[in-house]
């Protein structure tokens, strides 16, 4: 039980506990534990900014402090439903405990505010080894009994019902569906589009700690609006090939088409139309979700925000030069930690190498990630408009040039759809303003009579 103060707001009587698995097991190495704040544990209905629970992650295996934040930023750009992430400077009983990554909890409050049914709560489960299909001896004969489902994918809402029949029905549907039925969202019971994007992102990020290989760190939610199941991503502190060395060898070379312990992915890869969607998702990620210009700029922006805090954190690794370890691995050599020989990868170095590798791997499958845009069967050559800013933008974009005519400007999506933006106007003889505030997050093309340029909506 504790009192919580956030930016001057005080909340009395909240619940506090340590959290995490490996980040808890090794936390005593740096004497910095991950923390869960349960704001309404003792005071029913008490919230902060509409939130019941807050997770404070210690970034034990991420010397950059960027992995979770960047991963979820990419998901927002890809329109994948995912939790909000920010940073917090944490003080406990008057003692400064350093910088933490603050992550929104996936719970009843989250699902009601995330484009699901706002009035009714469906069944929410968290995976602790949920494969959907029994794929290897490590499954140990896993079955679909209530006891097995309670162990591997326990309920997080509607706990009192003890009703595991809906998730059991989904597993049976996935196992028994024909290829045609599977490709049709497993007979309209599963959001395959979001699943495919998530798996493509996990592979690009070389993250071994999710559905494939580990079968952990995701939630399954049945939306009452359409009765479909949705996979919701969670916990990305090991993304961007966080760990190498003795724990994992060459994780940066994680295969894009890995499927050994992933039943849903295995089915997807065996259906040509879905495998094509998966390849397209890989391209969308490197061209839009985490294109090289945006992600390098984002690493710089976030690094400028938290770099000095990490260098001066009294309960973290000895990071004397934050920017150096963005580009270079951080070796753990402290005796007695249990992590000796572990190398924490430099995030920017990984990003730039992985980007090229994804393009090459797809080319080996005769699949090209082209940046050309097809509109009305006319291929538009990608050129640059001189003076386009700010890019990325939250709302307005400005074009410099006295020869640009408002009537010649069009905005297109990645799929070539004309977004029919009408709020385009001259604000002086050399500047044109375009209002992109109504567009979803992602990459778009601005086409004039002679040029086509990429613009990013954040």
Please provide a written account of the structure.
This protein has 458 residues and is of the alpha+beta class. It folds into two domains: 2-289, no CATH class; 373-457, Immunoglobulins (Immunoglobulin-like), CATH 2.60.40.10. Helices cover 28% and strands 23% of the residues. The protein contains 13 helices and 21 strands. It has a six-stranded antiparallel β-sheet. A hairpin with a 6-residue loop joins strand 15 and strand 16. The longest helix is centred in the middle third of the chain and has 20 residues, at 292-311. Mean pLDDT is 84; it is low at 136-141, 245-252 and 371-384.
Query: Which consecutive residue ranges, at least 5 long each, have pLDDT under 50?
Result: 136-141, 245-252, 371-384
Task: Output the structural class.
Answer: alpha+beta
Helicity range? 25-40%
Instruction: Give the strand tally.
Output: 21
Overall morphology? globular
Question: What portion of the residues fall into strands of 2 or more residues?
Answer: 15-25%
Strands side by side in the biggest sheet: 1-2-3-4-6-5
Main β-sheet, in a few words?
Answer: 6 strands, antiparallel
Radius of gyration: 23 Å
Number of domains: 2
Task: Compute the average pLDDT.
Answer: 84
Counted by DSSP, the helix tally is: 13
Distance between the termini: 38 Å
Give a quick precis of the structure.
The protein has 458 residues and is α+β, with helices and mostly antiparallel strands.
Describe the protein's topology:
Layout: E1 2-6, E2 9-18, H1 22-25, E3 35-38, E4 53-57, H2 67-77, E5 85-92, E6 95-104, H3 108-112, E7 124-128, H4 146-152, H5 165-176, H6 179-183, H7 185-188, H8 192-204, E8 216-222, E9 229-233, E10 243-245, H9 263-269, H10 272-289, H11 292-311, H12 322-327, E11 330-331, E12 342-344, H13 347-364, E13 373-375, E14 378-380, E15 388-389, E16 396-400, E17 410-412, E18 424-428, E19 431-435, E20 442-447, E21 452-457
Antiparallel strand pairs: 1-2, 2-3, 3-4, 4-6, 5-6, 7-8, 8-9, 10-12, 11-12, 13-14, 15-16, 16-19, 17-20, 18-19, 20-21
């Amino acid at each position: 039980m504790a009192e919580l103060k956030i930016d001057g707001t005080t909340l009395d009587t909240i619940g506090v506990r340590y959290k995490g698995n490996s980040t808890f097991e090794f936390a005593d190495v740096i004497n910095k534990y991950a923390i869960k704040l349960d704001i309404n544990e003792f005071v029913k209905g008490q919230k902060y900014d509409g939130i019941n629970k807050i997770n404070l992650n210690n970034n034990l295996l991420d010397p950059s402090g960027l992995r979770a934040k960047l991963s979820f930023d990419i998901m927002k750009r890809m329109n994948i439903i995912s939790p909000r992430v920010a940073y917090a400077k944490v003080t406990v009983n008057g003692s400064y405990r350093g910088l933490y990554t603050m992550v929104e909890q996936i719970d009843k409050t989250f699902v009601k505010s995330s484009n699901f049914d706002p009035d009714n709560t469906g069944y929410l489960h968290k995976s602790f080894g949920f494969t959907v299909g029994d794929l290897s001896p490590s499954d140990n004969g896993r079955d679909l009994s209530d006891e097995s489902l309670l162990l591997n994918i326990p309920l997080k809402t509607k706990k009192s019902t003890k009703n595991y029949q809906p998730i059991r029905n989904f597993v049976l549907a996935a196992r028994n569906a024909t290829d045609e039925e599977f490709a049709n969202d497993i007979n309209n019971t599963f959001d395959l589009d979001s699943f495919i994007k998530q798996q493509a992102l996990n592979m690009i990020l070389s993250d071994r700690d999710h559905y494939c290989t580990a079968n952990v760190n995701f939630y399954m939610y049945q939306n009452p609006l359409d009765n479909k199941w949705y996979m919701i991503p969670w916990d990305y502190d090991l993304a961007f090939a966080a760990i190498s060395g003795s724990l994992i060898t060459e994780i940066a070379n994680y295969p894009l088409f890995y499927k050994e312990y992933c039943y849903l992915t295995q089915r997807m890869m065996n259906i040509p139309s879905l495998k094509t969607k998966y390849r397209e998702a890989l391209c969308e990620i490197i061209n839009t979700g985490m294109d090289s210009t945006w992600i390098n700029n984002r690493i710089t922006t976030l690094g400028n925000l938290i770099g000095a805090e990490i260098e001066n954190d009294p309960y973290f690794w000895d990071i004397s030069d934050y920017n150096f370890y963005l580009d270079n691995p951080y070796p753990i050599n402290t005796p007695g930690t249990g992590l000796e020989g572990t190398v924490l990868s430099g995030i920017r170095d990984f990003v730039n190498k992985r980007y090229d590798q994804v393009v090459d791997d797809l080319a080996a499958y005769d699949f090209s990630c082209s940046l050309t845009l097809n509109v009305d069967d006319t291929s538009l050559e990608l050129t640059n408009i001189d003076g386009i800013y700010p890019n990325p933008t939250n709302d307005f974009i400005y074009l410099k040039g006295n020869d640009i005519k408002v009537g010649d400007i069009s905005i297109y999506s990645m799929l070539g759809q004309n977004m029919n933006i009408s709020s385009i106007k001259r604000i002086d003889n050399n500047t044109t303003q375009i209002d992109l505030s109504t567009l979803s997050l992602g990459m778009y093309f601005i086409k004039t009579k002679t040029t086509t340029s990429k613009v990013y909506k954040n």
